[in-house]
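Q: Sequence in, structure out?
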Amino acid sequence: MNHLHYDFSWQRANTQLIDICFTVQQNTEALVELCLPAWRPGRYELGNFAKNIRSFKVENLRGEALSYQKLSKDRWQIEAADNTAFRVRYQYYAADLNAGSSFLDTEQLYVNPVNCCVYLPDRMEEPCSVKLNIPENWQVASDLPRGAEPTLLLADTFDRLADAPWIASPSLQHRSFSTRNHTFHLWFQGISNPPWEKLLRDFEPFCAAQLEAMGPLPAPEFHFLFQILPNFFYHGVEHTQSTVCALGPGMAVFEGSGYDDLLGVSSHELYHAWNVKTLRPADMQPYRFDRENYSRLGWVYEGITTYYGDQYLIRSGVFSAEQYFETLNEKLHKHFVNYGRFNQSVAEASFDTWLDGYVPGIPHRKTSIYTEGSLIALMLDVELRKSSNNQKSLDDVMRYLLGNHLHYTREHLIEALENCGLAQAESHYRSLVENVPLPEERLQAALAYLGLELYEHKHLSEHEHRFGMQLIDQGGWYNVGWIAPDSPAEKAGLQTGDLFLALNGQRLGKSAKAQWAEAMQRDECLIHFFHEGKLREKVMQFDSRNYFVSRKARIQANAGAAEVEARKAWAVNL
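A: Exactly. Output:
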């Protein structure tokens, strides 16, 4: 047992309370500061995990209580006096089953240590160990090395422990494969019969393609941990030597679009092993678990990863052209229907993930480091290919950073782009990353270089396309969602959250599509809606503009030989 050691156990799994005992030895301080992380890497917002702790106490090894004081929501000061060793005992409520939280029930103990393991900020570089007190017939899925017994997990630092989730369960399903001197493990919890032949056939090519392009992983083994849930779910979290992906519902994740999602999130999270777990903004090195870690480079670690997650699936032949265009067009759709792109740069969005990066937020405030970041990656990739006659690409930029600037800055990125042949790289960077809005003419030009074209994809809902408002069906009643700026809906006085009742004197119901089509034949229509409990009547006048208009990409029917050659160099299977 190391001098910093954790014991995990529980009394009754149905309470979902994990009993955690943290033992500290070789203490030399009379006053000891103890912390619990306030956030977890991969989710750039505060999690405030201390809200899940109860029954906190401190004692010496004789079981005698030691005094302590809580300094903040997740910091304590322990009066250790002359005790060279002491224990911290507490219960952690583990009731969130997703890719980044912790969960306990009668079927499994699933832990992300960064949620629930307290640490000593002055001793984070010391080795630590974890003993799992679990039934004998349970397996443990984790990338952590084992001690003298399979339930003893070892980590050489607290950062290593915080970055290594585990699942302990009697029903884990496991297979592995090897490629390019690496071994990949697939672990499934929540399902008894994964389609192993199909999974192994599809995982090996994209893993091999990433290794070929990026070089060796940080470790020769990598673990995919899958939580298969009964409800619809899609979530993945990256770690240096593993990833957790939570998907559902059930067997549907192995068919159709559900399987595309499984492959997509798996490829995305594997690429993170290089991009953010190894290659990381200098702003975030090292991780500071007790506060926000601000960076304007989130579009790199999430946007470029989103781009390459799909790229390696099409490059390796795992995705068909149809599957690839489905994912690309989903991103294009999210971009074009988001009016926030006129109000926030991608650099600003990177910095502001700590505000509301994972919820809709106020109307039209923000862009997405995932969506816009992936489109910036595409444009930079094409610019590099165009300037080098398809001899250089964004791959070279990422390899340059890996070889020269593991902890990179904005200036390092510009240096890497210039080194790989992109003239006036800083101008490109400002235009794409720091200006508002994203220059869509450059996106169109980038696609044209690859023999692709954008075409308008009109929404099926006329109230979105022509009147500029989204309606949310609430079981036959309609709540107003986003409203496009300067649209007929906005000018008529509608607000997000209003209850839309009637169009031209008729309740909006099952025939809503026909009602909207009929209304379009006029220059205006009469609407009734509830606003803050009061019935309102307004006249909504139409104009000739279209709103919430999406665009998709497709292969140009008359693309020339140069464009076809460029596209094949970019993605050989398109």
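The first strand starts at residue 4 and ends at 9.
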